[in-house]
DNA sequence: GTTGCGTTGCGACG
DNA sequence: CGTCGCAACGCAAC
């Protein structure tokens, strides 16, 4: 589609055009790349490339969505793009949407369009590191200036790593010390942009509108509940302003004190998806929080305060950037080598919300339907899957979160799975969240469970966290027979958690003895040892035992 | 080598 | 609601 003449630049031949490449950073406010692209340019091409792998339906995925993302996050992204387009239009521009492999599309655009400057936000994720290198090399060789500022995080991860002698800090406290105050802490950020130069001639490129889910090929889903969180900068800023209204709450926020079972009004800001896509600038958020603190009698501090949460985000970005194979166990220097089991049945039960533990299953339903759940709820299910009960590999759980969360962020998601599985950062594997009592402590009546698992809605509160203990008469009356209408628990928490602790202890001992250089064979030996331990507890029939030995 | 500390465990007790 | 014992990890500072 050709653009209307009014949006093309008549002085193209003699002009200096800029290409503003949006990826994350889907915002107008505090966007240094966009600002630089606009300054002194006769035309600006604001571009977003739709990568079919990320956006188009994959019928083989375990949930509705593409190969890489669940439908809730795709929807959030489309809403963010539509909002960005509408904001750009108010400034005399528009969003140019193209489809294809992003690197190839970019290079075609650089070739065809009048571009002297290529501007995009710097990104530390491995995917973008590889992609950007390719694009940067091409642009430089073509004599195009590349401007790629750090504006997604408070600090430049590379600076922190350099300050620490080339290694990323591995504790939050050491990160805080290195980081200090950000340089821009008390200087004004560019929050308003009054206009953007018009879009230049797009030649033969086929420019699309921001597509709808339907246009991407998604049929109307049977899902009865979608994420209640709408994407976009406007919505992110609205949510921020709404949060900031309650100054008392903002000033005294303490993360661990939040209620994971609160879903009508979540106990946290739910700004994470906006930060993830850069609909909200973390730096602007930081400055708003400092403003509130300045005028408050007292306020909380990192790590538990709201500013502390932004610093956690930077902490994980920094460690992730400075750690090769951060998203894997093998080849990851900071990750304990643990012989996780490979039980796809247990994984599926967890993923499909049929572990038989209502607290765990309700959280997994909320994840599926909303793409968001409270931080402590994430802890509960992550601990349960890995070191707490099922002893399934954290990478498997990470994959499920990465797909389904609307706020899933490569560095933070991997960092938290390393944390919760006691593979890195946190090592007190005795501290296990109980799938029964942890939720009950916040929500004794089980309202959260009743909402997300309506099959259990008439189970009396005495049994709602462990319905398999309810007498059959109670189950009948509640129209929910355990084992028929709702599953029996996949494990006994008491014995499973005890086993997990023992396994973690033995795995830790091997890691210590070999100073982290644990081989494939060492892991196999541990697995064999664990299997023998299992047999002692529950002797298998001789036939089966023979089979195991062979 | 020792000590103190670490965003968010559980259960008992007051 | 807070404190304690439980059992006990690795990292960082000394």
TrEMBL record:
Cofactor(s) listed in the protein's UniProt record: FAD
Keyword Flavoprotein: yes
Residues binding FAD: 268-272, 309-316, 407-409
Domain Photolyase/cryptochrome alpha/beta: 16-154
Site (Electron transfer via tryptophanyl radical): 340, 394, 417
Keywords: FAD, Flavoprotein, Nucleotide-binding
Catalytic activity annotation: (6-4) photoproduct (in DNA) = 2 pyrimidine residues (in DNA)
EC identifiers of the protein: 4.1.99.13
InterPro entries membership: Crypto/Photolyase_FAD-like_sf, Crypto/Photolyase_N_sf, Cryptochr/Photolyase_FAD-bd, Cryptochrome/DNA_photolyase_1, DNA_photolyase_N, Rossmann-like_a/b/a_fold
GO biological process entries: circadian regulation of gene expression; entrainment of circadian clock by photoperiod; nucleobase-containing compound metabolic process
Gene Ontology terms for molecular function: deoxyribodipyrimidine photo-lyase activity; DNA (6-4) photolyase activity; DNA binding; FAD binding
Database matches in Pfam families: DNA_photolyase, FAD_binding_7
SUPFAM superfamilies, sorted: Cryptochrome/photolyase FAD-binding domain, Cryptochrome/photolyase, N-terminal domain
Cofactor remark from the record: Binds 1 FAD per subunit.
GO CC terms of this entry: cytoplasm; nucleus
Region span, Disordered: 529-550
Residue ranges, compositional bias (Basic residues): 540-550
Record family assignment: Belongs to the DNA photolyase class-1 family.
Protein name (database record): (6-4)DNA photolyase
Phylogenetic placement of the source organism: Eukaryota, Viridiplantae, Streptophyta, Embryophyta, Tracheophyta
